């Protein structure tokens, strides 16, 4: 029996513009389940559900009906959620049993219109060069909407220290490109610039997971990419193109370096970070 046969209303159109039915959504998630489950291991997830398709109502869910956090450990559990309308999967940077201590640090580059992908890539290039100068490896993925996410696998560290350090790195980028990049929290203060959202490192925040679908008309995916694929843009990465990339290049969302001691890495350059969230 196929996964599609085990869910309600497999024929329901979830993405009207792309004419994608729930059965295709399930088939996609069954294919990428190993990569999602690896990211989800031990984490309390948040799902965004559109039971009647992306043109219908949406709601967040952080707890299953019987209480507790949403912890998904099997393809069957993942597909059960998808059958109930879960399209987007978001994860915190810490584990459920130690949420204040994170093993990832991130920087989310979010363009404030009319700034767009060209500006994201310009800012991303500066941050990439900064990380490489500091000998800090990273993973890269599209947000699936407008932005770009840098992830650094780190030795477990309290989120306040990560906020302080990533905030200082964001400041370097902002000072380098003051007309293109900003750390201003309020949208009205950002102008046509790319927001350097280091606050995503806070313990209460979640970020869309690699390989998660997004509720966009063309069913885009938060896709792992390499820097040389930056010119393709975020809307290039649809279900079929992500599948093709997996066939040709395998899973790009795999940390293969030693975990970075973030405090040591920045201290070599005279940085210690501030007091935490500013």
Structure description:
It is a single chain. The chain is an alpha+beta fold and 278 residues long. The chain contains six helices and 13 strands. The chain has two domains: 3-91, no CATH class; 98-204 and 256-267, DNA primase, PRIM domain (Alpha-Beta Complex), CATH 3.90.920.10. 29% of the residues lie in helices and 21% in strands. Strands 6, 7, 8, 9, 10, 11 and 13 form a seven-stranded mixed β-sheet that branches. Strands 4-3-5-12 form a four-stranded antiparallel β-sheet. β6 and β7 form a beta hairpin. α1 (22-40) packs across α2 and α3 packs across α4 (159-176).
Secondary structural class: alpha+beta
The total of helices stands at 6
Question: Could you say what the CATH topology of the largest domain is called?
Answer: DNA primase, PRIM domain
Oligomer: single chain
CATH architecture of the largest domain: Alpha-Beta Complex
Strand content: 15-25%
Q: How many domains, in number, for the residues? A: 2
